[in-house]
Design brief:
The chain is α/β, with parallel strands linked by helices. The protein is built from nine helices and five strands; from the N terminus they run E-H-E-H-H-H-E-H-E-H-H-H-E-H. A five-stranded parallel β-sheet has the order 2-3-1-4-5.
Length: about 190
């Protein structure tokens, strides 16, 4: 089975591009953002705890996210591949994912990193905040904090996957279709 991590900062287009890959390859889309938003909408204890972190532009604690992923991984044996969108976000999460996959005799195939300039990220997030009503995309200070948290805590994953020879940078600018075509071409070559 193919296991792909779709990676990049907030606003890079991970969710949009994940859907294009899911449609093209018939992979399962595993989005921690969608999982957390569903918990928040249902007003579960997990959702309310996660909302405090998300509203502040912080990462939800590893143990919460890892637990959700572990439950989902038990259900994926009927798909040709999985696209991880928003997970892992830390090296600790990556190591936990590696352990979970190893126990199933699986492993990460590649980290596909959408590369987008800072100014473009801020612009995209502000537009998304206006159209979606997401509070974490509506305030410039929160957006800048989210990008800073990404740079400090999430970007180290690039080095982790470079050491494993699984890092694949993809230009994340252009039309949605142009970016999707770059990703599809890269996956086809894997």
């Amino acid at each position: 089975m193919i296991h792909l991590i779709l990676f990049g900062p907030p606003g890079a287009g991970k969710g949009t591009q994940a859907l294009a890959l899911v449609e093209h390859f018939k992979f399962m889309h595993l989005s921690t953002g969608d999982l957390l938003r569903a918990e928040i909408a249902a007003k579960t204890e997990l959702g309310m705890e996660a909302k405090r972190f998300i509203d502040a532009g912080e990462l939800v604690p590893d143990e919460t996210v890892i637990g959700m992923i572990q439950i989902l991984l038990q259900r994926i044996c009927t798909v040709p591949g999985v696209i991880y969108d928003g997970f892992p976000r830390t090296v600790e999460q990556a190591k936990a994912l590696d352990q979970m996959l190893t126990s199933c005799k699986e492993g990460i195939t590649a980290l596909l990193s959408l590369e987008v300039p800072h100014d473009e990220l801020v612009k995209r997030l502000l537009i998304r905040g206006e159209s979606s009503g997401r509070t974490d995309d509506a305030d410039i200070a929160t957006i800048e904090n989210r990008i800073s948290v990404y740079e400090a805590k999430t970007q180290p994953l690039i080095d982790y996957y470079k050491q494993l020879d699984k890092y694949h940078p993809i230009a994340g600018v252009g039309t949605i279709q142009e970016i999707a075509e770059r990703l599809i071409t890269e996956v086809d070559q894997l």
